[in-house]
Amino acid sequence: MLIYMNGELVPKSEARVSVFDHGFLYGDGVFEGIRVYQGNVFRLHEHIERLYESAKTLDLEVPMSPEALTQATLDTVAANSKRDAYIRLIVSRGPGDLGIDPQSCPKPTVVIIVGSITLYPDESYRTGISLVTSSVPRIPTQCLDPRIKSLNYLNNILAKIEARQAGVPEALMLNFNGRVAECTADNIFIVKRGKLKTPDLMQGALGGVTRAAVLQLARDAGMTTRETSLGLHDLYNAQECFLTGTGAEVMPVISIDGRTIGSGEPGRVTLDLLDRFRELRVRDGVRVDFKTAAASADYK
Ligand code: PMP
Q1: Whether the predicted pLDDT of 296 surpasses 70
Q2: What is the whole-number distance in angstroms between the Cα of residue 135 and the centre of ligand 1?
Q3: Ligand 1 neighbour 150 (Cβ under 6 A)
Q4: Residue range 12-35, pLDDT digits in tens
Q5: Does any ligand 1 atom lie closer than 6 A to the CB of residue 207?
Q6: CATH for 229
Q7: Helix (H/G/I), strand (E/B), else coil: 274
Q8: Residue at 288 is within a domain
Q9: With a threshold of 0.90, does the pTM exceed it?
Q10: How many Å lie between the centroid of ligand 1 and the Cα of residue 26?
């Protein structure tokens, strides 16, 4: 396995970051999780754009252009000869002093890992999963905008721990006003009277790349879509519910807090969107050039 580290491709055993990196000390940094399907990097430009937007808000200057980072990502996939993969792109504040001041960190760390991910067993896509509502609210936008995909996931991790303790794989997170925000690593959708609804981003959700793709797929299929404010009442009484995410793709939800959703089985619209997403993911990506990239002069 070859890892991209600050402009070089190095073997996994040599891919190390400093213990003084503020990404390690304070969770100061941003990241992306991206999928490669049959040699196509899914929505690469959207992920790169979100990474730069997250960094901008944190006043973190990515030490290369979006075009160069895009190329480095494609080259790292090619160098690892993986046609189906999960890419983790990380830009941390870099090594500095002990103390939170980012000014002591002159050089951000850029890492690209090409690995794999299995968030849910295959069976869950046929049976659906259950959720519980976490007692931990999503961080309010005024404190740390959840649209920033930062290295600090403690808010979500606390909710994930509650899900595990309740024996379910994912937790629903409400915002400070008790409205539905998202799950710990996925966006959430419901279907009600033929309309597809998802919390608008100001409820405290990450602008998921999969979320945007599914909204588009639904509109293209003639469905009415709404980004709006939703409460638990709306979710409990939905006809269908599902999650979206780079890892999860489109995951049916069949129960929330012990309430059965719809028929208690993955719904028709959900399964149709899952099919459409599976079809989209192999054709809608940036192609990796497996031949030339490995010979790229920039990387040893
Ligand atoms: N919300 C959170 C908190 C996430 O971490 C993620 C990414 N796993 C998502 C939603 C889904 O976003 P995407 O579709 O871009 O993976």
Answers
A1: no
A2: 20
A3: no
A4: 999 999 999 999 999 999 999 999
A5: no
A6: 3.20.10.10
A7: helix
A8: no
A9: yes
A10: 21
